[in-house]
From TrEMBL, chain A:
Superkingdom as given in the UniProt entry: Bacteria
Pfam families in UniProt: Ald_Xan_dh_C, MoCoBD_1, MoCoBD_2
MF annotations from Gene Ontology: iron ion binding; oxidoreductase activity
Database matches in InterPro entries: Ald_Oxase/Xan_DH_a/b, Ald_Oxase/Xan_DH_a/b_sf, Ald_Oxase/xanthine_DH-like, AldOxase/xan_DH_MoCoBD1, AldOxase/xan_DH_MoCoBD2, AldOxase/xan_DH_Mopterin-bd_sf
Name of the protein this chain belongs to: Xanthine dehydrogenase YagR molybdenum-binding subunit
Domain Aldehyde oxidase/xanthine dehydrogenase a/b hammerhead: 20-133
PANTHER family: DEHYDROGENASE, XANTHINE DEHYDROGENASE
TrEMBL record, chain B:
Gene3D superfamilies in the cross-refs: 3.30.465.10, CO dehydrogenase flavoprotein, C-terminal domain (3.30.390.50), Uridine Diphospho-n-acetylenolpyruvylglucosamine Reductase, domain 2 (3.30.43.10)
InterPro entries referenced in this protein's UniProt entry, alphabetically: CO_DH_flav_C, CO_DH_flav_C_dom_sf, Diverse_Substr_Oxidored, FAD-bd_PCMH, FAD-bd_PCMH-like_sf, FAD-bd_PCMH_sub1, FAD-bd_PCMH_sub2, Mopterin_DH_FAD-bd
Domain FAD-binding PCMH-type: 1-226
Species of provenance: Mesorhizobium muleiense
Pfam families the record matches: CO_deh_flav_C, FAD_binding_5
Protein name: Xanthine dehydrogenase YagS FAD-binding subunit
Record PANTHER family: OXIDOREDUCTASE, XANTHINE DEHYDROGENASE SUBUNIT C-RELATED
Keyword Flavoprotein: yes
GO MF: FAD binding; oxidoreductase activity
SMART domains in the cross-refs: CO_deh_flav_C
Keyword annotations: FAD, Flavoprotein
């Protein structure tokens, strides 16, 4: 028997491929007779194309085709809503009319022999516009309720207004998070190749099946006729959940040119061609009694969206259950603007909403002169008070205890500006974190071979969290084979269907499917061969056998409220004269169910912490309110954390948690919760260090002078 | 990217014959050395020269220290100069400024001459999606004046341009009275670094005093700048690999607990590397009392003009000067 592999710190099975450059990313596939595309994008935010002169571009060296709304084939654009698409509205149609609704909108496509020739020709396409007044200043757009199911946008329990008015201690503040872009290191890229009526796409995506279905709907063909291949993704953070217009453009270019076409977005185009975390404005009002019991929570927020889609995220969800409170009001609105549609970015909604909620909780703790951990413990609920359901498991108390102990929280002097190290003001802050447990239908196939090896597969994705490795572990563990005898494959629509690689659901869903398929094939092999170990069974059988399994959630969501919970503790040093903040320590404790690979899970949590540092201290897509252009659309002026910003101490604690209700593997997911709570913990620590409460992220030096 | 011919002359005289001109966007012939900035500008269609003159292999890359002072060949890389033992010992301000610039990869590639001639990070200059930029298209206007301008200058600005000169190296060098040696068709000349860059005034597209065909061959730093107590302080939003929000280069000579003479220059705030003689005069003879330093640093605000988002720099730069002087004074 082999040792149990689930729960072991196995190194990445694809690590060598990645560090040696042998892993093949979307733009790197070698396709014969390849042509290259470049996109002409609008430089106005609203209006119509008055003229578009392609003569010079058509004469430019190497140009095969220049496609505009006048010359583009009419595309079917059949109805299709994938899970990552906005529930209300219609996706952007490319090159179908003269309408411009946002900066950077694709308005022409050039196909040429080389990428340089395509880019040059795109630059000499002459466009004039009929400008119309554009809504590009998020501060001057009046928010409105989304038009979807109303109950989700406004919720109320108890009497929040009167309870707030009567509360002895009150906090009522507004918190702002600017637009942020995902900025994965790998640029978006698509290679499109038609074979008659069938299409093959090599694409950067977090969901191959959705790309196939979306592009099939756009072109009016059957989804079975679209194959999507995406074995490696160089970071995404949610940006590759949706199928964006450039995928359509690549396929359109390939159709017009009659050749395979590659389209790679530039870094600047990444700020226009794919979505972003929307700018949010939130007002959080908390009322409490003298002993720290929450009496009322009123939390409302609005976020930017486009004129053509109502993008919404779970901004206020956690407010309804994270802390116990009898009187709660939430209201979520949107601000439609002349921008392209935002999208999900790591911990969408929760990261933003909990920044406001947990900042307000810290302000309340200060008002009460109460330790912020104690305030949370006094409002620890014994059920989900919004859904009126028990939690399947909830380890918040243990997270607070374990993280506080590791951090040394008991040594904290509560007074702001009371702790110093040389010139630096030291601040300690904390926040709670939560993210829903998501589990979706998934399928996997396992095949045992006579030589005692196994092939296991599912059309999942790995944007970095380690799907390749964790699935190999689950398969080998279940089959009872050494890990090097198991080959897992993902990222191809020809494989059994997996759910979207987002919402922290891959381990729960695909992992459970892999486990089920492996269990099935193993039992089958042992039974058929009348053997009691798998190697012996395969020797006896002498031929491959395989099994496919489908898993799906049952009625557990009706019986339980299921979430991962955590606590984040942070130490910052602030230069009181220069306003620079550096994070010195982060300790995060998480109750996230079973942890399949502690090494990779820790890596994922560290990544989330660093992402949270970016959110708190530097990330900001600076949108020019006058015209909607992203002013810092490059990685020099859009600051993301560098190594020197990562604190020397990033401590990750997984508290012991066994949850039999969530899914067969008992995992809750880690990808998103790792980011949640970091930004408010840092903001709270900065308050503790300086006595200044900054309510607009990022907290750059100018805000602390 | 505009198509261009890459010229690869074999020697300096062949370079000069090609008549390239650095630092103006209407020049049809430009230089490329390390290319760390130029390639970005070409790719983004900001620069559209017809010919690009490679300086690879034709310029001096030596680093020499002698009785006259320091001489840096224009082709020496940022990494080489930053790691040079004599530079570290006698002109640590230069090494510090370099190590606070860019990333190790960029420093391995970028040259001294190219660093001084790198173009502004002004996002309106670098994004051809903006039609208004007087530096890129003379007479087209300035989108920064009433746009997002947290990155922009508060010193040396005009109503036509508020773009910051981005170099850290130039700030350290201008504090040390460095000069640049130029060679052109008309012969050699030496220009104080403080005169190399022009103020934008109403001609922001003319960035330097270089004539067509002229090339920077070396940077010289006088010997009297050696051995000063110095500090290069850089304030930024993240810990590394970012252009300055505000930087201060300070070099002082002390006499007991007093400052005998001081050199002070600022980065991140000026349309060119900005030397502050008024602050220097006020610091001469001063002690290190915070109030005294603060009073001297306050003179840096003379002539500043904030444009909205960048107003905080006026206060921050004074604090940066005070801190840099304190740190320099505390050095052995």
């Amino acid at each position: 028997m082999t040792a149990a592999l689930i729960g072991k710190s196995v190194s990445r099975v694809d690590g060598r491929l990645k560090v040696t450059g042998a892993a093949t990313y979307a733009a790197e596939f070698e396709v014969p007779n390849l042509a290259h595309a470049a996109v002409v994008r609008s430089i106005v935010a609203n209006g119509r194309i008055a003229s578009i002169d392609t003569a010079e571009a058509e004469r430019a060296p190497g140009v095969i085709a220049v496609v505009t709304h006048r010359s583009a084939p009419r595309l079917a654009y059949q109805p299709h809503k994938g899970l990552p698409d906005a529930a209300v509205g219609e996706r952007l149609h490319v090159l179908q009319d003269d309408r411009v609704t946002h900066q950077g909108q694709p308005i022409a496509l050039v196909v040429a022999e080389t990428p340089e020739q395509a880019v040059y020709a795109a630059e000499v396409v002459r466009v004039t516009y009929r400008n119309e007044a554009a809504a590009t200043d998020v501060e001057s757009v009046d928010p409105v309720l989304p038009t979807g199911k109303p109950a989700e946008w406004e919720t109320r329990r108890g009497e929040p207004d009167s309870a707030f008015e009567q509360a002895e201690f009150r906090v009522d503040q507004t918190y702002v998070i600017p637009r942020e872009n995902h900025n994965p290191i790998e640029m978006f890229a698509t290679i499109a190749s038609w074979q008659g009526g069938s299409l093959t796409l090599w694409d950067k995506t977090q969901w191959v099946h959705n790309v196939a279905e979306e592009i099939a709907a756009v072109f009016g063909i059957a989804a079975e006729n679209v194959r999507v291949i995406s074995p490696f993704v160089g970071g995404a953070f949610g940006s590759a959940l949706r199928c964006w217009p450039h995928v359509t453009l690549a396929a359109l270019g390939a159709r017009v040119a009659g050749r395979p076409v590659k389209l790679v977005l530039s870094r600047r185009e990444m700020y226009y061609g794919v979505g972003y975390r929307p700018h949010t404005v939130q007002r959080a009002a908390l009322g409490a009694s003298r002993d720290g019991q929450l009496q009322a929570i009123r939390h409302e927020g609005h976020q930017e969206t486009s004129t053509y889609e109502e993008f919404t995220e779970a901004l206020l969800s956690a407010t309804r259950f994270l802390h116990s409170c009898p009187n709660v009001h939430t209201r979520h609105r949107i601000a439609p603007m002349n921008v392209h549609t935002p999208t999900y970015m790591r911990a969408p909604g929760e990261a933003s909403g909990i920044y406001a909620l947990e900042s307000a909780m810290d302000e309340l703790a200060v008002a009460l002169s109460m330790d912020p951990v104690e305030l949370r413990l006094r409002n620890e609920p014994d059920k989900d008070e919004f859904k009126d359901l028990p939690f399947s498991s909830r380890s918040t108390r243990e997270c607070y205890r374990a993280a506080a102990e590791r951090f040394g929280w008991a040594q904290r002097n509560a007074a702001p500006r009371s702790m110093r190290d040389g010139r630096s003001l030291i601040g300690w802050g904390m926040a709670s974190a939560t993210y829903p447990m998501n589990y979706a239908p998934a399928s996997a196939m396992a095949r045992l071979l006579p030589d005692g090896t196994a092939e296991v597969m599912s059309a999942a994705s790995d944007m970095g969290p380690g799907t390749w490795t964790s699935m190999t572990q689950v398969a080998a563990d279940t089959l009872g084979l050494p890990i090097e005898r198991v080959k897992f494959t993902l990222g191809d629509t020809r494989l059994p269907r997996a759910p979207i690689h987002g919402g922290s659901m891959t381990m729960a869903s695909v992992g459970s499917a892999v486990q089920a398929a492996c269990r099935k094939v193993r039992e089958d092999a042992l039974a058929r061969a009348s053997a009691n170990n798998i190697e012996e069974a395969m020797k006896r059988l002498g031929q491959a056998i395989e099994a496919t399994a489908d898993v799906a959630p049952g009625d557990e969501t009706k019986r339980f409220s299921m979430h991962a919970f955590g606590a984040v503790f942070v130490e910052v040093a602030v230069d009181p004269d220069l306003g620079e903040t550096r994070v010195r320590r982060i300790v995060g404790a998480y109750g996230a169910g079973r942890v399949v690979n502690p090494k990779i899970a820790r890596s994922q949590c560290i990544g989330g912490m660093i992402g949270g540092i970016g959110m708190a201290l530097m990330e900001h897509s600076v949108v020019n309110p006058r015209n909607g252009r992203v002013t810092n659309a490059n990685l020099a002026e859009y600051a993301v954390p560098v190594h020197a910003d990562a604190p020397p101490v990033m401590d990750v604690i997984f508290v012991d948690e066994h949850d039999p209700h969530v899914n067969p593997l008992g995992v809750k997911g880690l990808g998103e919760i790792a980011l949640v709570g970091v930004a408010p913990a840092i903001a709270n620590a900065i308050f503790h260090a300086t006595g200044k409460r900054v309510r607009e992220l990022p907290i750059t030096p100018d805000k602390l002078l | 990217m505009h198509p261009f011919v890459l010229e690869r002359p074999r020697d300096l005289s062949a370079v000069l014959a090609l008549g390239a001109q650095a630092g103006r966007n209407d020049a049809p012939v430009e230089y490329i050395a390390g290319g760390t900035d130029m390639v970005q500008l070409l790719q983004e269609n900001v620069r559209r020269p017809d010919r690009l003159v490679s300086l690879a292999g034709v310029l001096d890359d030596g680093i020499e220290i002698g009785p006259q002072g320091l001489r840096l060949g224009a082709a020496a890389t940022m990494a080489e100069v930053a790691a040079h033992q004599a530079v570290i010992e006698q002109f640590p301000l230069i090494s510090q400024a370099l190590l606070n610039s860019a990333s190790p990869q960029v420093r391995n590639q970028a040259t001294m001459g190219g660093n001084l001639l790198q173009r502004t990070r002004c996002p309106y200059f670098r994004d051809v999606g903006y039609e208004a930029c007087n530096k890129r298209v003379p007479g087209s206007g300035c989108a920064a004046l009433d746009g997002e301008n947290r990155w922009h200058a508060v010193l040396g600005t005009s109503d036509d341009c508020i773009a910051v000169h981005p170099s850290d190296l130039a700030v350290a060098l201008v504090a040390l009275d460095a000069s640049v040696e130029l060679r052109g068709a008309g012969g050699d000349r030496s220009v104080p670094l403080s005169d190399l860059h022009r103020l934008p005034r109403d001609t922001p597209h003319l960035e330097t005093v270089l004539e067509p065909g002229e090339v920077i061959t070396a940077i010289t730093v006088p010997a009297n700048a050696a051995g000063l107590r110095s500090h290069y302080l850089k304030v930024r939003d993240r810990a590394s690999f970012e252009f300055a929000v505000v930087s201060a280069a300070v070099a002082i000579e002390t006499d007991g607990g007093r400052i005998r003479q001081a050199r002070v220059a600022l980065g991140g705030v000026g349309t060119k590397p900005w030397r502050l003689s008024n602050v220097e005069t006020a610091l001469a003879g001063a002690n290190f009392e915070p109030a005294v330093l603060r009073q001297a640093a306050a003179l840096a605000a003379d002539g500043t003009r904030g444009r909205g988002h960048n107003g905080f720099k006026i206060e921050l730069m004074q604090r940066a000067i005070v801190r840099a002087v304190e740190i320099a004074g505390a050095r052995a």
